[in-house]
Amino acid sequence: MSDPRKNTRDIYPATGTELTAKSWLTEAPLRMLMNNLHPDVAENPHELVVYGGIGRAARTWKDYDMIVAALRDLEDDQTLMVQSGKPVGVFQTHKDAPRVLIANSNLVPHWATWDHFNELDKKGLAMYGQMTAGSWIYIGSQGIVQGTYETFVEAGRQHYGGDLKGKWILTGGLGGMGGAQPLAAVMAGACCLAVECNPDSIDFRLRTRYVDEKAETLDEALEMIARWTAAGEAKSVGLLGNAADIFPELVKRGVRPDIVTDQTSAHDPVNGYLPQGWTMAEWKAKRDTAPKEVAKAARASMKVQVKAMCDFHAAGIPTVDYGNNIRQMALEEGLDNAFDFPGFVPAYIRPLFCRGIGPFRWAALSGDPEDIYKTDAKVKEILSEDAHLHNWLDMARERISFQGLPARICWVGLGVRHKLGLAFNEMVRNGELSAPIVIGRDHLDSGSVASPNRETEAMKDGSDAVSDWPLLNALLNTASGATWVSLHHGGGVGMGFSQHSGMVICCDGSEDADRRIARVLWNDPATGVMRHADAGYDAALDCARENGLNLPGIL
Amino acid sequence: MSDPRKNTRDIYPATGTELTAKSWLTEAPLRMLMNNLHPDVAENPHELVVYGGIGRAARTWKDYDMIVAALRDLEDDQTLMVQSGKPVGVFQTHKDAPRVLIANSNLVPHWATWDHFNELDKKGLAMYGQMTAGSWIYIGSQGIVQGTYETFVEAGRQHYGGDLKGKWILTGGLGGMGGAQPLAAVMAGACCLAVECNPDSIDFRLRTRYVDEKAETLDEALEMIARWTAAGEAKSVGLLGNAADIFPELVKRGVRPDIVTDQTSAHDPVNGYLPQGWTMAEWKAKRDTAPKEVAKAARASMKVQVKAMCDFHAAGIPTVDYGNNIRQMALEEGLDNAFDFPGFVPAYIRPLFCRGIGPFRWAALSGDPEDIYKTDAKVKEILSEDAHLHNWLDMARERISFQGLPARICWVGLGVRHKLGLAFNEMVRNGELSAPIVIGRDHLDSGSVASPNRETEAMKDGSDAVSDWPLLNALLNTASGATWVSLHHGGGVGMGFSQHSGMVICCDGSEDADRRIARVLWNDPATGVMRHADAGYDAALDCARENGLNLPGIL
Ligand SMILES: NC(=O)c1ccc[n+]([C@@H]2O[C@H](COP(=O)([O-])OP(=O)(O)OC[C@H]3O[C@@H](n4cnc5c(N)ncnc54)[C@H](O)[C@@H]3O)[C@@H](O)[C@H]2O)c1
Ligand SMILES: NC(=O)c1ccc[n+]([C@@H]2O[C@H](COP(=O)([O-])OP(=O)(O)OC[C@H]3O[C@@H](n4cnc5c(N)ncnc54)[C@H](O)[C@@H]3O)[C@@H](O)[C@H]2O)c1
User: Fold this and answer.
1) For residue B152, what pLDDT is reported?
2) Hey, are the CB atoms on A485 and B464 less than 8 Å from each other?
3) Angle between helices B468-480 and A468-480 (to 10 degrees)
4) N or C: which end of chain B has fewer CB within 10 A?
5) Which residue from A minimizes the CA distance to B71?
């Protein structure tokens, strides 16, 4: 039997203004599902893999086809249910209800391990949804660029007086998310050395201008870094190698990067991390035939890499876990001080989350870049005072190649998101934009995730592991009328370590959409402010008061 | 500081037709929350405990008061969010959205243990919601009587040719749920010996006519059983004692019950199971001061009890786990064959779940028993051919004392539930009933729970632990317009072992309610049929076809 997950088809979403489904509310998830598998967007579209190890958009190709058929057929008062990438039901709801409801990779906690997941996966009973892969709002590496940029800028502010000129960042992994690192570093004014074991990933980033140069040896890469930092030039190099070899080697040589982090897919020991001494071919083959052996070897190598990261940290170099759960893996391998260095959220991002600020994003269903440029201009007009944001939009336009449907990311929070949504909807209505816009966000956002090794690490009140919050977020977005809503387990930190929810809303230009947008794009970030206010953060409490939130047990 | 969970107040819901909130859609959750804490309903209302160990209706008394205040103030296009028994936000939604959204006790899987929960609980950051305690649709022991009755009847059918006359059932626990066992046994025609360590619990069941007699010694109890079974009389006795002492003693004596089970609160080793050799007073005191010691001793005793249950099973006596996870506890204590005897769902209940049949229930917000009697008659009229159901309703009316707001339980499935709902709504509209009715169900239902040691034990396709299903159920009920929707973790099998969702819908007599009822009471059981059809059960596939369900990836 052929593998139900392998196919040679190339998927492209429809573009333009002609509907291929019954309305824009169903056309939107249809185009975005296809966009997730667009050859320029997905990491391995022929195996349905969008990004982040084995994060998929549908369980099998057959399921993909059935989802497409169901969406084409769906009425505007019906709702399609998707269970781990498989379409399982169409039910009568109403026009203000979501058109699609999604639950991916959720397991009862006692069984929420990679072993059990892999067993189910092999039987065809599961799919790894990552965050935006199985919920159809991945927009390529751009999705992560601004978050990474904001993180590096904040690190520069905290450690280097706000100036990263002549500084360099060491990291690993140039995959779907990690590929954003060199570009974000350069945008923030720093150089970057990224260790990546897959030559194709480096070439992909070169082609899309996310990385500037490629090196085959460490010496070559270090020579470039030395030259660029001396000249005060912000440039990046992808070094072909294994991070578990290169990181300790740098420690041994006494080389001092200015910031150290990593974005290999360490959250998934079977599929995400090349063990030391293995070739790519060997790794690929054994993932299927001997997954346990792969995981064991990968975990051992992760421990070596984290040990080196701890050494950098001990030497006073700002070192940060970039959300791939690599510290946990090393801890489980017996590296007791694996959590010596912090995660990036408590270090740099939480103050933003307290105000509901996170990776807000939108895409132009028309496929026309002009639609995005017009929304860029609208954002600048509405947020006319925000110089930092104007700067970001200018850089993004200049440096970021669109992948698939043109899209934009822009970290904004409560009080702003709904204004942008309403403005975009108005632009659709009056014909300024050629077709509807969808607005969504990463699951990594302020109110949508419980992830004690990442987004909710070291919460002020110790509530890191409480996952009522993302569940409430999903229920409220459903009640508010988002166009599709998703609930995932696993994601960026792997099985057992997080629960999170996503939402996307379609601006089809209608007045019904106005009402939904006003509710959803207010309520969604407000749940983030609520969650952080409940944990006792002053910034969140202030934000809640300023915005007049009604939080009975909190305010 | 005084304990925020202790108070001497007695809570009674309003009755009659006068509103204490702004509409029946908010009056309904208000009365049902209060009803959960009614002195005749809750096991320990002064500590906010409704049933099932520490299953609470609100996190603290302050939270209770704030929930009440928020509900009184809530508009019909607003939604109150409740996070582990605390009211955390009021948001703008719309009239077809739920008025309350609830998430209780949910923890990220890696941290989903009693230890971590108890730590959070101590800090005031958690509440155990059980199933219907924190979701405000507990209706006293009646809620479980019919399920237990159906289970005993089915056991009689499978093992004793459909006749339980002269047979007797051995069990443990006469708490909120377990208290239903003697009555259900008697209704099914059998005698029952129930071992209970708390004299108050026995007295409570005597008072409410759930148990017929009380015994202080095993000899006394066995004498009654011998006498009744010989006479072919169906009667029950509550024996004061520790099940971990009595069960092995019976094995030792060679006494052979006809069916063996148990409903102590074994799912919660700290609060739910009296260790052997301890007094009740000692147990109560140490739960607060030395919880770990209690848990250790309780687990050791559970192992002893399960060992005896395995012995009964080995001796050919039908023995079944009644959903309190006691096998898992014994297994973790090293009793390798703890899972020798099955759970009650795969043994007796799954065929019902395949057709969406489960513990459907309703309550009369008027407080008037006549309203329930009228609905009883309506059910008989609509299901005029169903003799088994008529029989149940007659027995229920005769034998079951209402607790708190009058309520009825009735196991019905897809295709019937919405009909009953619409009929009740019509009766409210035309004044046949004096006030609105709420309709809900247990979380233990066909589409609403993932619980590999109970409801989803031994699923045909091995998908026991997949919890996408209850999450989809909650999202769909939210999208369909239930009046309140809840998502819980833990419940009857304890931390880490289940995820489940609840829903309640208010029949206020309006035409809007007609539309919502038609959607919710169809979609909700349909998700159960969908879940079992996906797992490959023929009965579910047939039911889906008969009812014309649209299940793209399944049918
Ligand atoms: N911080 C965040 O905001 C955030 C967001 C999303 C994802 N993540 C996490 O970051 C990680 C990377 O995500 P992604 O989408 O880029 O994943 P990916 O699987 O697309 O890319 C991982 C890359 O790492 C490379 N790699 C694996 N082992 C290596 C090794 N030993 N040495 C060098 N390179 C190696 C792979 O070849 C691949 O290119 C994941 O764990 C993901 O969950 C973080
Ligand atoms: N099968 C089902 O449908 C179903 C439904 C709900 C709950 N449950 C489970 O059944 C169990 C009982 O539920 P409940 O609501 O009655 O709980 P409860 O806490 O109200 O009652 C438990 C009773 O067991 C008694 N008990 C404790 N240890 C004992 C011992 N060693 N010997 C004798 N008696 C002992 C307690 O005194 C108490 O009266 C729970 O684990 C619950 O989760 C099963």
Assistant:
1) 96
2) no
3) 30
4) N
5) A552
Quickly state the pLDDT bin for A208 (edges 50, 70, 90).
confident
Choose the CATH number for A351-546 among 1.20.1560.10, 1.10.10.10, 1.20.1260.10, 3.40.1770.10: 3.40.1770.10
| Burial of B377 (C-beta count, 10 Å sphere; 0-12/13-18/19+) | exposed
In this prediction, residue B122 carries a pLDDT of 96
Pocket test for ligand 2, best of B50, B105, B139, B177 (most atoms within 8 A of CB): B177
HSE-CB of A394 using CA atoms within 13 angstroms: 6
Is the CB of A509 inside a 6 Å radius of any atom of ligand 1?
A: no
Q: Does B90 touch chain A (CB under 8 A)?
A: yes
Phi, psi of B192 (to 5 degrees): -145, 135
Please report the ipTM that was assigned to this predicted complex.
0.93
| CA dihedral (B231, B237, B241, B243) positive or negative | positive
Of B94, B106, B472, nearest to A83 by CB-CB distance is: B472
| Sign of the alpha-carbon torsion through A3, A4, A9, A11 | negative
Report residue A355's pLDDT band, with 50, 70 and 90 as the boundaries.
very high
The answer to whether the CB of B180 is under 6 A from ligand 2 is: no
Distances from the Cα of B371 to the Cαs of A219, A276, B213, B365, B378, in angstroms?
85, 73, 32, 9, 11
Cα–Cα distance, A137 to B234 (Å, whole number): 62
Ligand 1 within 6 A of A494 CB? no
What's the CATH number for B142-342? 3.40.50.10730
Q: What is the nearest CA distance from A224 to chain B, expressed in angstroms? A: 43
Q: Residue A463 has which token pair?
A: 């509530």
Catalytic residue chosen out of the listed positions B191, B410, B506, B507 = B410
Structure token pair of residue A417: 């998101």
Amino acid, res. B209 = R
Identify all chain B residues contacting A474, using CB atoms and an 8 Å cutoff.
471, 475
Q: Is A263 annotated as a binding residue?
A: yes
Q: How far apart are CA A442 and CA A431, in angstroms?
A: 28
Query: How many other CB atoms are there within 10 angstroms of residue A434's CB atom?
Result: 17
Mutate which of B468, B530, B554 to disrupt the A interface (most A C-beta within 10 Å)?
B468
Show me where the domains of chain B are located.
39-136+356-550, 142-342
* Residue percentage of chain A with pLDDT more than 90: 96
Rounded to whole angstroms, the Cα distance separating A508 from A22 reads: 13
Yes or no: say if A348 and A151 are a contact pair by the CB < 8 Å rule: yes
CATH number of the domain located at residue range(s) A142-349 in this protein: 3.40.50.10730
Q: What is the pLDDT of residues A253-304, one digit of tens each?
A: 999 999 999 999 999 999 999 999 999 999 999 999 999 999 999 999 999 9
Residues 6+ apart with CB under 8 A from B424: B362, B375, B378, B433, B437, B439, B507
Check whether A328 is labelled as a binding-site residue: no
B178 lines ligand 2 (CB under 6 A): yes
Q: What is the pLDDT of residues B488-545, one digit of tens each?
A: 999 989 999 999 999 999 999 999 999 999 999 999 999 999 999 999 999 999 999 9
Q: Domain B39-136+356-550 is in which class? A: alpha beta
Sheet holding A191-196, edge to edge: A213-215, A236-240, A191-196, A168-172, A259-260
Which residues in A lie closer than 8 A to residue B523 (C-beta atoms)? Answer: 91-93
Residue B410 appears among annotated catalytic residues: yes
Given B91, B101, B552, which is nearest A90 (Cβ)? B552
> What secondary structure does DSSP assign to A221-280, as a single string?
HHHHHHHHHHHT---EEEEES-HHHHHHHHHHHT---SEE---S-TT-TTTS-PPTT--H
Placement of tokens 């019919």 in the chain: B146
**Ligand 1 site, residue A341, Cβ cutoff 6 A:** no
Q: How far apart are CA B351 and CA B518, in angstroms?
A: 24
Nearest-neighbour CA in chain B from A471: distance (Å): 7
